[in-house]
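tokens incoming
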């Protein structure tokens, strides 16, 4: 389009930041607004920024650069050539002039519009009437000043022409009188101006707030309309792609490929960096349809497809699924009937200490980055080893899985257990204490709950923790987790590395899976919140059954429920048996598949699969948080007991860590001092090991470095990875109270 037209589009280079410099962006000039997008395709759904030209200042730095500034927002743009720059400048100037004319016309026409109500009318006319009276006062004072000023000027002229000394006294007296009148009038003028400015300033602030409110309402309305348009578009595509079945009740989103890629949104590299997850790009790849069991009993012989089943199996199974539907509270009530140790149900309330960033920064001046102590204000009074143990909060899912005769049924409970470990993270934005090298944590619930757990920090750089759990109810779990993190400005990505192994004693089924990525948003500004996103593939290495679980990342424009998790359980032949659905912070359900068929291909080219299922059954539901949890770091009932003092534990146990104990007691200043002491002690031990390694190297000897106390490194036969596994001896040492091998780390 020519520069004089209403709309002008084209490519320009926009300055983003010092790392990426100028980036190519698609700019659109329309109706006095200059908007830009990453690509032309983004014009349909995502605008990266807009500037209003009616109040903008247009400047040219050199032959190709353009600078647009409007209040606190400035765009530094660059064209390919001077000719292209001049075209854009001409278009911008014309658009600015037109926008100013439109704004003036709107302000002129606004007097013809009546307020919506009497209250609005009185609120508008009252200030206007007051301002009008003040303006009249200013006008009157102005006339008087002009009149008296002219008279004073005449008097002064006459005074200059005086020749007779006798007349000089009278003239001078008249000049003084007129000067006095002028001074009085000027003072009145100044006072009137001051009153006018004060009144205008107060009402200006009020009108500014009203205008800001209207702008926010308009933005909200635009976002709502955009969201409705996206939902309408998605519904149309889903309606065109779904085959004609009797009664579709639910639709869940997943992927039809064997290995599913993580749905990660690409973060914008602009100054207003925002993470977008576009819901339109991920159309449903399979649809579940809840069938009537009675109807399928009569017509079951007519079913055909990739996967079939009998509804009677769903009701006549070994009652494992039925027992999972019972309320978790009833189960916990039954446990309370057993004789067991009484655990604590609360901890001291979290102090309301304000965080002084300057006090942190001034203590960091002149220190190495690795020696900067982070205050406990960012922590919760639990270590990473204890947080790892929290994964066992819903261990009864594994107890129920032991009773399953079918490996695919067992897979459903294992999948629910893998999701349940994230339920405690939804409100837990504080970080746990980093364990010291050689630090351990035991959770002995063998008599009460049938299992005992042991964790040990086996490496410090990189930090790695080994975990082993034995249950007398028929299962063993072990893992070695290393945490990798990436700070991306507005959010922090936490990626647990390492596989989780679970083996059932009677069947020999060996399950392996890995954790998904956790993202902490609003690191710099705003309220912290956590999201889980990515894929979990659970594999039974004995039967080759698989479960693909997808954690859908949060999207403002998505029509799905937040924190959604979906998946399919299939056997070694790829035949789907169950559909998993739910949320990682509330519950997980399982639906038995009766029939599967291939639907039409979506607009993205993905093949949709339609699963006819029976009614879903709840496998796992989150326990409610204890009373006053918001003042106790949002700890669950299990988390409240993890740091409870116990006798006969190892001297390296996290319960004995002094800085963590002081923080739990609310003595944060003392905890910061103790935390710094422990970290410096650990650095001294590391420096001594490094010196020993250098000395051994000079002597031509091998240096093994740190050797874990209760774990040993072996190559895993299933995954082929080098992993720390429990070598035994801890519980025997506890029985004898022989802790001679434990180092002094506290």
């Amino acid at each position: 389009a020519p520069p004089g037209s209403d709309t002008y589009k084209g490519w320009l280079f926009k300055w983003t930041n010092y790392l990426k410099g100028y980036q190519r962006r698609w700019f659109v000039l329309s109706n006095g607004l200059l908007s830009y997008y990453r690509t032309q395709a983004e014009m349909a759904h995502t605008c990266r920024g807009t500037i209003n030209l009616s109040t903008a200042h247009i400047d040219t730095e050199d032959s190709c650069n353009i600078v647009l500034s409007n209040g606190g927002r400035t765009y530094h743009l660059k064209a390919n050539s001077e000719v292209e720059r001049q075209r854009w400048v001409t278009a911008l100037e014309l658009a600015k002039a037109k926008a100013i004319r439109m704004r003036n016309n709107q302000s002129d026409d606004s007097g013809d519009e009546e307020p919506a109500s009497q209250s609005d009318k009185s609120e508008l006319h009252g200030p206007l009437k007051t301002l009008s009276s003040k303006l009249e006062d200013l006008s009157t004072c102005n006339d008087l000043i002009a009149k008296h000023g002219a008279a004073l000027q005449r008097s002064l002229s006459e005074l200059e022409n005086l020749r007779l000394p006798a007349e000089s006294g009278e003239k001078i007296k008249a000049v003084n009188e007129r000067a006095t009148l002028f001074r009085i009038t000027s003072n009145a003028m100044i006072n009137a101006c001051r009153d006018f400015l004060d009144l205008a300033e107060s009402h200006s602030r009020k009108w500014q707030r009203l205008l800001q409110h209207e702008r926010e309402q308009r933005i909200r309305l635009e976002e709502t309309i955009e969201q409705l348009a996206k939902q309408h578009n998605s519904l149309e595509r889903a309606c065109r792609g779904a085959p004609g079945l009797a009664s579709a009740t639910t639709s869940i989103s997943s992927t039809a490929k064997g290995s599913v890629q993580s749905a990660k949104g690409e973060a914008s590299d602009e100054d207003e960096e925002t993470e977008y997850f576009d819901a339109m790009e991920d159309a449903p790849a399979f649809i579940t349809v809840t069938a009537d069991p009675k109807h399928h009993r009569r017509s079951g012989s007519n079913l055909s497809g990739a996967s079939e089943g009998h509804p009677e199996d769903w009701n006549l199974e070994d009652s494992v699924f039925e027992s999972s539907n019972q309320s978790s509270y009833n189960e916990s009530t039954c446990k309370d009937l057993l004789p067991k140790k009484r655990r604590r149900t609360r901890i001291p309330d979290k102090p309301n200490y304000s965080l002084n960033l300057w006090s942190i920064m001034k203590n960091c001046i002149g220190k190495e980055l690795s020696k900067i102590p982070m205050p406990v204000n960012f922590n919760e009074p639990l270590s990473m080893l204890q947080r790892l143990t929290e994964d066992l909060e819903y261990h009864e899912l594994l107890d129920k899985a032991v009773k399953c005769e079918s490996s695919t049924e067992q897979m459903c409970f294992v999948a629910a257990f893998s999701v349940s470990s994230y339920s405690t993270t939804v409100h837990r934005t504080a970080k746990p204490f980093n364990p010291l090298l050689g630090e351990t944590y035991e959770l002995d619930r063998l008599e009460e709950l049938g299992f005992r757990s042991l964790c040990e920090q086996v490496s410090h750089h990189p930090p790695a923790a080994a975990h082993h759990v034995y249950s007398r109810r028929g299962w063993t779990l072990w893992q070695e987790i290393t945490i990798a993190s990436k700070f991306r400005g507005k959010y922090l990505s936490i990626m647990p590395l390492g596989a989780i192994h679970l083996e059932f004693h009677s069947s020999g089924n060996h399950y392996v899976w890995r954790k998904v990525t956790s993202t902490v948003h609003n690191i710099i500004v705003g309220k912290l919140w956590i999201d889980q996103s990515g894929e979990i593939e659970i594999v039974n290495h004995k039967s080759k059954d698989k479960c693909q679980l997808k954690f859908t990342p949060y999207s403002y424009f998505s029509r799905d429920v937040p924190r959604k998790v979906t998946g399919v359980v299939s056997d070694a032949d790829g035949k789907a048996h169950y559909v998993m659905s739910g949320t990682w912070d509330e519950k997980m359900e399982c639906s038995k598949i009766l029939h599967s068929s291939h639907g039409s291909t979506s607009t993205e080219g993905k093949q949709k699969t339609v699963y006819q299922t029976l009614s879903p059954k709840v496998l796992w539901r989150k326990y409610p948080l204890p009373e006053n949890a918001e003042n106790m770091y949002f700890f669950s009932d299990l988390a409240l007991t993890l740091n409870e003092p116990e006798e006969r534990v190892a001297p390296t146990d996290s319960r004995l860590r002094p800085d963590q104990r002081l923080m739990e007691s609310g003595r944060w200043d003392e905890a910061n001092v103790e935390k710094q002491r422990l970290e410096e002690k650990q650095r001294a031990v590391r420096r001594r090991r490094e010196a020993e390694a250098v000395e051994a190297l000079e002597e031509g000897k091998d240096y093994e470095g740190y050797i874990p106390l209760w774990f040993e490194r072996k190559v895993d036969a299933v995954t082929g990875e080098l992993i720390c596994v429990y070598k035994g001896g801890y519980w025997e040492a506890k029985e004898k109270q022989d802790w001679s091998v434990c180092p002094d780390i506290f």
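note: Confidence is low (pLDDT under 50) at residues 110-117, 244-284, 295-313, 325-338.
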